[in-house]
Amino acid sequence: MREKIIAGNWKMNGTLAEARALVTELLAKLPTAEGVETVVAPPATALATVAELIKGSKIALAAQDMFWKEKGAYTGQISPAFLTEIGVKYVIIGHSEPRGRFGVAEPDFTPTVLAYFGASDEVVNRKAHAALKAGLIPIICVGETLAEREANTTDAVVSSQVTAALAGITAEQAAGLVFAYEPVWAIGTGKVCAGDEADRVCGVVRAAVGKLYGAEVAEKVRVQYGGSVKADNAKELLSMKNIDGALVGGASLKAADFVGIVTGAK
C-alpha cells in the first residue's frame, strides 16, 4: 500500500521569523499519523533554518527547485549538493510556475517576461536525473492549462510531460518517484478539479508510468493532486484510488489549514 504524502509548497513566502513561527506551530499541532508523510517546502533562504527546527521530527524537508549541475559558473542557481548538505529529502521539479504556465494571468508578465520562466520538458528531465544522482527524491509536477483542457488535450499533455520527465530513468528509480498532478487552471484560482476527475487524471499519470515500466512500477509511484487543496476538500480528494497525497500551496501557509489537510489524509 502506498504511503500518503502531503507536501506544503510555501512558494515565495516566509521570512526566517515567519518560517520559525509556522514550523513551531506545525510541530505542536500535526497529528502523528501512520501511513501519512508530511513535507514542507520553504523558500531556499529558509531551508537551513527549517532543517534545524524539524530535526528529529517526522516532518521531511523539500526544496522548491534546483539546478542540474553540481557546481560552476551558474549565478543564482542552487546545486543539488547544497540541498543534500542541509538535509533536504525532496525537491519539487517542473512546477507550472517555473515552466511559465500560470493559473492566474499576471498583468505585467509580457511574453518577453514570461520567457524568463520557460523551463522545458528537457530541463525537467535534466533536473530529475541530477536529483536522483544526488540522492534526492523528485516531486515531478505535470498538468494542463485551461486552454488545453477546453481543447480536450488534458490526457495527451499530461502523458507527454510524464514521458519526457522519465527519459533515461531506470525502472528502479522511477518506482521511488512522486508525481504531482496540478491542473494549471486550478493553481491559485480557488477552482478545484472535481474529485472523480482529479482521480482519473492521476490515473493517467500512473498509466503513463506503466506504459514505460509496467504495472508493478506504476503501482509503486505516488501521485499527488495539487490545485487549491484546502482542509474542507482534502478528505474527498485523498479518498480517491489514484490520489496518494496533495501538493498544497496557499493552505500550507496557515498551520491550522495544513494540519486539517494532513488529518484528512489519515
Write a brief structural summary.
The chain has 266 residues and is an alpha/beta fold.
Separation of termini? 14 Å
How many strands, which pairing sense, and closed or not: the largest β-sheet? Answer: 8 strands, parallel, barrel
Number of E-type strands? 8
Q: Element order, helices and strands?
A: EHEHEHEHHEHHHEHHEHEH
- Show unreliable segments: none
Instruction: Please state the average pLDDT score.
Output: 95
Q: Strand-residue fraction?
A: 15-25%
| SSE class | alpha/beta
Percent of residues in helical segments? Answer: 40-55%
Kindly report the oligomeric state of this protein: single chain
Strand order of the largest sheet: 1-2-3-4-5-6-7-8
Work out the radius of gyration: 17 Å
> What general form does the structure show?
globular
Count, helices:
12
What does this structure look like?
The structure is a single chain. By secondary structure, the chain is of the alpha/beta class. The protein is 42% helix and 15% strand. The protein has helices at 16-29, 47-54, 80-86, 111-114, 121-134, 146-150, 154-165, 171-175, 195-213, 215-220, 231-238, 255-264; strands spanning 4-9, 36-41, 59-63, 90-93, 137-142, 178-181, 222-226, 245-248. Helix 1 crosses helix 12. It is globular and about 45 Å long.
